[in-house]
Design a protein that fits this description.
It comes from Macaca fascicularis (Crab-eating macaque). Belongs to the TMC family. With 384 residues, this protein is mostly helical. It is built from 14 helices and no strands. Helices cover 79% and strands 0% of the residues.
């Protein structure tokens, strides 16, 4: 950083910077045309900045010019702040007018005017501020770049603070709640699943667009597989079973309305099946098998018990299969750990054998050196 700072501002060598830029800035290692063109553009921009700063130092602004520049900057800042405050005050006044107006309170379409106005102000105000920022008089392009950078930073920081996180848990609960309401209402409104499908499609794309444009990543990571398991578990046991129990109770026990509906003359919805069977019995022998199905498969409790027993048997078999798989997994883990211990034992055994061989070789070399030493001494004594 210190080296870059010295190269950029020429600390300690302020004189002759134009000549240094002209004669010493070219990198002769560059051979490609595109890289050389980029280097030319960089040197050209650098010379423009140096000449602009040199002209400012040679012809400084007068007092009136500085006051004019300060007035223009202050006016731009005041206009930006005034725009923000004006938008806030306008939204507040308009909302109070809608609340107090009796005509607007009775119309549902008038409630959408305020969000529309807020959205238009949010879209138009940033462009107005950018136009005002472009009219600010700056002495040098370097200062303009620094001001713009301080503003690409403040905008990012404010967006980070302002952007909410996408609440995965809340959206999952909303899906479960909507599906539960669909299951509860399908008996009373058969077209409700179709409405639910259309609503899910629209909500999915709306929330996807909102997530990509307005939300930030959550601080806590979520596992997709874990969330899918939780979603299916909550959707099956509390939602589906609760809705099934409620509908069964409504069909068998709750008395229908006596003023409207297809079951208004019956004591319960379940009696509609018996009435339908009577009509089928009187219709002729061609549909005589339908009353038999209703009598022996719907009203007979033995068939219900048989289906329940089969369901429990399937659940029990699945539980046993899962337990068997868990036991196999535990056995495989134990086998892997035993194999690892065997490998460690073999490695330690090999190390001990190798160390023992090294010690034997060292001792053998030592004994051979000791036996070879006395003849050398005798020859030395004879030489003496």
């Amino acid at each position: 950083m210190a080296h870059s700072f010295g190269e950029s501002y020429r600390v300690g060598s302020t004189s002759g910077i134009h000549a240094i830029t002209v004669f010493c800035s070219w990198d002769y290692k560059v051979t490609q045309k595109r890289a050389s063109r980029l280097q030319q553009d960089n040197i050209r921009t650098r010379l423009k900045e140096l000449l602009a700063e040199w002209q400012l130092r040679q012809s400084p602004r007068s007092v009136c010019g500085r006051l004019r520049q300060a007035a223009a900057l202050g006016l731009a800042w005041l206009l930006c702040l005034g725009t923000a405050l004006g938008c806030a005050v306008a939204i507040h006044v308009f909302s109070e007018f809608l609340i107090q107006s009796p005509e607007a309170a009775g119309q549902e379409a008038a409630l959408l005017v305020l969000p529309l106005v807020v959205g238009l102000l949010n879209l138009g105000a940033p462009y107005l501020c950018r136009v005002l920022a472009a009219l600010e008089p700056h002495d040098s392009p370097v200062l303009e770049v620094y001001v713009a950078i301080c503003r690409i930073i403040s905008e990012k920081k404010l967006k980070r603070r302002r952007k909410p996180e996408f609440d995965i848990a809340r959206n999952v609960l909303e899906l479960i709640y909507g599906q539960t309401l669909t299951w509860l209402g399908v008996l009373f409104s058969p077209l409700l699943p179709a409405v639910q499908i259309i609503k899910l499609l629209l909500v999915f794309y709306v929330k996807k667009t909102s997530l990509l444009a307005n939300c930030q990543a959550p601080r806590r990571p979520w596992l997709a597989s874990h969330m899918s398991t939780i979603f299916l578990t909550l959707l099956c046991f509390p939602a589906f079973l609760g809705a099934a129990i409620f509908l069964c109770y409504a069909v068998w026990q709750v008395k229908p309305s006596s003023t409207c509906g297809p079951f208004r003359t019956l004591d319960s919805m379940y009696e509609a099946g018996r009435v339908w069977v009577r009509y089928l019995e009187a219709a002729g022998p061609r549909v005589s098998w339908l009353p038999w199905v209703h009598r022996y498969l719907v009203e007979n409790t033995f068939f219900v018990f048989l289906v329940s027993a089969l369901l429990l048997a399937v659940i029990y078999l699945n539980i046993q299969v899962v337990r068997g798989q868990r036991r196999v997994i535990c056995l495989l883990k134990e086998q892997i750990s035993n194999e690892g211990e065997d490998k460690i034992f073999l490695i330690n055994k090999l190390h001990s054998i190798y160390e023992r061989k090294e010690r034997e070789e060292r001792s053998r070399v030592g004994t051979t050196e000791e036996t070879a030493a006395p003849p050398t001494l005798l020859t030395d004594e004879r030489d003496d």
